[in-house]
Amino acid sequence: MKLKNILIVVKDIQISKRFYKELFGLDIVTDFGENVILTEGLVLQEQNVWETFIKQTIQYGNHDAELYFEENDMDTFLERLDKSTWNISYVNKLMEHDWGQRVVRIYDPDNHVIEVGESLSYVARRFLKQGMSISDTAQKTQLPKDIVEEIAKAEEKGELPR
After folding, report:
1. Which of the residues in the chain have pLDDT under 70?
2. DSSP for 42-104?
3. For helices 134-141 and 120-129, what crossing angle results, to 10°?
4. pLDDT tens per residue across span 16-45
5. What is the DSSP letter of 142?
6. 120-129 and 145-156 are packed helices; what angle lies between their axes, rounded to 10 degrees?
7. For residues 35 and 50, what is the distance between their CA atoms, to the nearest angstrom?
8. pLDDT tens readout for residues 68-78
């Protein structure tokens, strides 16, 4: 068995398609009208259709899940948010976790929580570039030391870490 997609219920599929295209660069793979499959495995389903399937009323904004995106160029993404025509509501503005990862959390038009954060390999690479040792980087990022060593070797070769 394998997980194929993540489905979120939305009030207005046209607004949601535009939101995920403009801010996250997701494209439409298949558009069934009230059900749309986007790149990266995100599926949008209009509320009225979903309610006929589950025979219950939808409640938005329960903060019980989030969509997680990785973006290593956080400054450019934050500029995109600031310059967008969307009235962005933040769960939290840019913050740095104890392990060094910078993240921002916002709501989509239907109050789904979206987190955008740097990949941990990028965080490790940043610390290594700042002169932090492999051991200290592993401890700070909570990544296994062998993974940090792999990132350091890739950095030496000018390759992007995974």
Report:
1. 160-162
2. EEEEEHHHHHHHH-S-------S-EEEEE-S-HHHHHHHHHHSSS---EEEEEEE-TTS-EEE
3. 140
4. 999 999 999 999 999 999 999 999 999 999
5. T
6. 60
7. 9
8. 999 999 999 99
- pLDDT, residue 135, reads 97
Of 3, 7, 36, 2, which is closest to residue 21 (Cα–Cα)? 36
And the tokens for 157? 């070769």
**Contacting residues for 119 by C-beta, under 8 A, at least 6 apart:** 70, 72
DSSP, collapsed to helix, strand or coil, labels residue 146 as helix
Q: Which amino acid is at 33?
A: G
Q: How far is CA 104 from CA 73, 95, 136, in A?
A: 12, 6, 25
Q: How far apart are CA 149 and CA 136, in angstroms?
A: 11
CB-CB contact of 154 with 160 (8 Å): yes
| Residue linked to tokens 């989030």 | 66
